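Researcher: Good morning. I'm working through a list of sequences from a screen, and I'd like to move beyond sequence-only analysis. For each chain I'm collecting a predicted structure so we can compare shapes side by side. This is the next one on the list. No need for commentary yet; just the structure.
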Amino acid sequence: MARILSQFTITPDSDGDYTLHLEDEDGETIEMTASYEQLDLIVEGIEEVLDMDEEDALEVDEDEGEEKSTEA
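Model: Good morning. Structure tokens for this chain:
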């Protein structure tokens, strides 16, 4: 079962790489080292998924706004 992400940090190290700390909701942390290129690929992957979901997310926000205006 996938763990739920609670928080994360990315810090540069002295070798020109980056250290990722991924913490789950139970406080368990995974530490990984990644290069600039790897982080760039992660960013591209996240942007691609979010772009696909953006329209659906905006529709939900608009629906919530309509509900709020009809309640008042």
